[in-house]
Amino acid sequence: MKKQFQLIIVTLFLTSLTGYGQNVGDEGDTGYLKYRIISTNPIAVELIGLSSPGANLQIPRSFNLSGQLYIVTHIADGAFNGSGKAEEHKLTSVTFEHPSNVTSIGNHPFANNQLERVTIPNSVTSIGNSAFQNNDLHEVTISNSVTYIGYAVFTYNPNLSLVTVERSNPPTLQANAFQSLNTNLRPQIDVIVPRGSLTNYQNNTQWTGFKSITEVAEVDDEFIADHITYKITEITSNRQVSATSYSLTGGEVTIPSTVQYQGSDYSVTTIADNAFKEKELTRVTFALQSNVTSIGGHAFQGNELTTIDIPTSVTSIKHNAFRGNDLSEVTIPDGVTEIGTFAFYENQLSSVTLGANVNHIGYGAFRFNELTSIVIPNSVAYIGNQAFNNNRNLGLVTVERDNPPTLDIDPNANADADVFKNANRDQIDLVVPRNALAAYNNSTNGWTGFKSITEVAEVNDFFTADHITYKITEITSDRKVMATEYAGGPIVSIPET
Length: 497
Fold this sequence. Notes:
Layout: H1 2-19, E1 27-29, E2 33-39, E3 43-50, E4 56-59, E5 62-65, E6 68-75, E7 93-96, E8 104-105, E9 117-120, E10 126-127, E11 139-142, E12 148-149, E13 162-165, E14 172-173, E15 179-180, E16 183-184, E17 190-193, H2 198-202, E18 212-215, E19 222-225, E20 228-234, E21 240-246, E22 251-255, E23 258-261, E24 264-271, E25 281-286, E26 294-295, E27 316-317, E28 329-331, E29 338-339, E30 351-353, E31 360-361, E32 373-376, E33 382-383, E34 396-399, E35 406-407, E36 429-432, H3 437-440, E37 452-455, E38 462-465, E39 468-474, E40 480-486
Parallel strand pairs: 3-6, 4-7, 6-8, 8-10, 9-11, 10-12, 11-13, 12-14, 13-17, 17-18, 21-24, 22-25, 24-26, 26-27, 27-29, 28-30, 29-31, 31-33, 32-34, 33-35, 34-36, 36-37
Antiparallel strand pairs: 1-2, 2-3, 5-6, 15-16, 19-20, 20-21, 23-24, 38-39, 39-40
């Protein structure tokens, strides 16, 4: 019994030395990672494997065991190779704690797994042969510190399409680093390099044959996708672009919610001035989840559009934006606060619905259309000169604001200097809010001279038509009236409506 006890003590002592050894070559186990000591003072280790199977691997900067700091500086050959492992035990992600202390990645340590993307940290200087061979990589980022990339590092990754290299001086790239079976992957890979380093890569024979090599994107850079030219407007927080021009003529165009460039999604937030001007377009479609907030001046002017669904994301429609099309109706979203000068000039609009937050209607905004009526919401405080001119059949204007909106009328200007001209005011019935009649009848505010000015109808109001007096009995869902009095001749016809 005593000998057995002594044997147990010796075994435990040896185990503790193995677990927390401090000599070069000693191996240990943190309970998560297996390691081997490669130097002392300070103690540096290379990782040699996982303690137990796992799909998501994080490489730490260091770890502490019994008060002793162990710095992780290397990934050993074959350390996390997935060969022979069950599919559920293969790695699907590898991340490095920041800032990493790892300076080298050995041969094939991450091969034969299921990694889709990897970022080499800015501490690694060399990547060993076949390090990421036979995965499902789509994207790779190689940090500024990497100077050497070994043989066949990314072979057998058939979906690899984007490699970002952060070093201005091209790293040494050994043969067949990008290969899949007998297929060279380079023609399908876009390479992104630092600003000012494009020539360095183009002149380096080890870095030729790729689908493209471009410098990392910055604000004001331009790129083309589906014949639309985009200009980068924001890149630091949210990636945003403006659609600036279109290379085709005729047919339809779709404005996407996002567009991809250099592996990143950019929100399309602006249609720039003149972007689609005079392109003979018959249809413009915005993506359902559109991010467009501003439609620029002349953006769609001079096309052949008959319909347009302006996205709810839009807050501003600039001058001449849809001028000279064939639009028959338009709904301005509630987010729009300003409609620019001549924004819908010379269309065929018979129906316009203004959003609940429109504050400013610009000069000539709806001139030369086919409106018969218009409702101006409570939010509108300003209406520009000639805004509704040359709507020949305009007969009803309803204003929902108690305090009359400012009308921009220059009495010294030409004969068209009025918000309402041809149809003239004497052809238009003006309807205003309850108890606002006196405010609109004030000759100093420009809201006089209409055929009639009445307050908006309510239940129990009376009106007369063809000598019959009617009383309104229902107005919220179905509008209904009751005939209450007749002042005509011996024959009367009761209308349906």
